[in-house]
């Protein structure tokens, strides 16, 4: 009798271990997919330096950013955060990449970018929500346009003064993405 219970316990242990290893492999695949969604070579138009650093809180997360260059005249940037962590948030991040990529024609209008992304994601992300901010850096006119959808305000570093002044831009769009 004791031999039978020992066999069941060992069998259960190894079965659980195999399942955990399989889950670990799937999470690693999700992490690689998420990393591949982030820009690697941040090309910059003349007169502008772009740098980014991504440090997720967990193996896979809902943090996201992307950049679109518009014919050397400007750069569109999206920074977003999906509620929660894990594979589900990372999958919604992948949806954000596709939604942002589809906004190439209107990337110079950050409020429209956020409105269109909201329209695309509406009803598709169930219990999650996304906060985001969108920028367009207009190199020709030396200005930056900005819109926010519930995201914490960004920081602007002034290298000439070596400071980060308060970021006061009129928000043309505000609020959370609808689900």
State which percent range the strand residues make up. 15-25%
CATH class: Alpha Beta
Please, how many helices? 3
Order of helices and strands: HEEHHEE
Shape: elongated
Structure description:
The structure is a single chain. It is built from three helices and four strands; from the N terminus they run H-E-E-H-H-E-E. The protein has helices at 2-37, 87-101, 110-121, and strands at 61-70, 74-85, 130-138, 143-149. The chain has a four-stranded antiparallel beta sheet. It is elongated, with a radius of gyration of 21 Å. The chain is an alpha+beta fold and 179 residues long. A hairpin with a 4-residue loop joins strand 3 (130-138) and strand 4 (143-149). The protein is 35% helix and 21% strand. The model is unreliable at 167-179 (pLDDT under 50). It has a single domain, classed as 4-Layer Sandwich (Phosphatase 2c, domain 1), CATH 3.60.40. Helix 1 packs parallel to helix 2 and helix 2 (87-101) packs across helix 3.
List the helices and strands and how they pair.
Layout: H1 2-37, E1 61-70, E2 74-85, H2 87-101, H3 110-121, E3 130-138, E4 143-149
Antiparallel strand pairs: 1-2, 2-3, 3-4
